[in-house]
Amino acid sequence: MLRVAGQERARPRARTRKVDGMAQALRVVVIVASAHSKAVALAAPKTSLTPCILDDDHAQLDLLSAVMENMGYQSITTSDPEEALGLVRSGRCRLVLADVNMPGMNGYEFLDRVLRSDPGIHVIVMTGEYTLESALDAIRRGAADFLPKPIDRTRLKRALDEVATIYDQRKRVRTLEEQLLKDLEFHGIVGKSPAMLEVFDFSRKVAKHYTNVLLVGSTGTGKELVARAIHNISPLSQQKLAICNCSAMVDTLLESQLFGHMRGSFTGATDTTPGLFEYANNGTVFLDEIGETSLRMQAKLLRVIQNREIQRVGSQEVRQVNVRLIAATNRDLRVEVLAGKFREDLFYRLNSIQIRMPSLTERLEDIPLLVHYFLKKYNDVYGKSISGLTRRAQTVLLQHAWPGNVRELENVIATAAITAIGDFIDLRDLPEHLQHRGPGRPEGGDWRPLSLDEVRKSHIRRVLQLCLGNRLRAAQILGIGRTSLYRYLKCDGNEICAREKTGGAAA
Prior knowledge:
The chain has 507 residues and is of the alpha/beta class. The chain is 53% helix and 12% strand. It is elongated, with a radius of gyration of 36 Å. It starts with a helix and ends with a helix.
């Protein structure tokens, strides 16, 4: 019994030692986990953000630099505001912690100058004389945060992490935009709007078949780019593409350019020269602004389409050619046919397939994508590293009417890329006519309250001016029938009609 009892008493002690061992192991696990969590909390953030610390107190510079290094940020310290501005302009620093009280240039002056230099920079203002009014003033001026001295480490880390998050987010967005740009680029044409995706899809379908194509749309919408794309993805892509701007030459010169000429056929014809139709035989010929050609030239073009034959200027020999014809115009050729300015038979020959290019105002959602595309292009051309546009510059671009369409937008970005000195294009870098147009500002400085009848009359006049007196096109833009437009013009008197005839003739 004693032995048994002793054995039974020994079992609880063994069980107790086992429980104590498990508890000690758990305490070790908890300690390790706690240490690991603290290490994770103090781990360096995965960011390439390099802050700049600007302070005239060298002890404060060393202290803040050591604190930020423990937080995972490798900083650059300086007591010279001009040096800090140079670091920002060179792109080395996207965040500056600036002290308010500095000799020569205080923190507010530095804030104003650095934001004028680069509106996308982040500035945290520090001061030992903190007041609510001074904090609000700094935020109004564009500061990212306002920290009182001595600097609270928790608040400093939170501010740094917020800026680092924004900085890394912008880098990721830029990477995604570049990938999106590749996916939405169609042989040099960029667009994600439904109208442009329809143009891309229709162009792919048309390119497979050997047929004439008519591209219609306003100036600057990208008709030539679409013509090149159709040729490049067609079975004729290995053959030549010839391009001719019909509005840039008089009839005699255009005839020589297209059909060629014999030596001595006219003054200055010192050599026999083949024309574009012979040059691009078995390939593609693109005739831009075909609506500007004369009726005589249209008859010669009709012969090329119908009979596939040409005659050089000064030669009786008929030569066979086999080309695909792509034509483009910014005019309404149906109206030109009714007016007797364009041959009806040529129009129907060209209009077997028609692709309409939307204006930029019809595809405003493409503007950010186009801006990114042109920035990438002109960054390479000018050796710049511009990341984007400020919000106010983006707002102005989205509010502009863009009468010159994509070509005008490209010229604006090209000019701004030259004048911009920071990583972002600001309002001051845009052309002057865009700088002085604020959100919600009436067009023109002579605006005055008008009655609805006066507004209607003025709007009809402006649309007619835009259409160069073309009433059919004006009625389509206004969303009314021609009969209604004529009735409005009759009610408003003959003043508008007279002005439009004069304006159309002048144009």
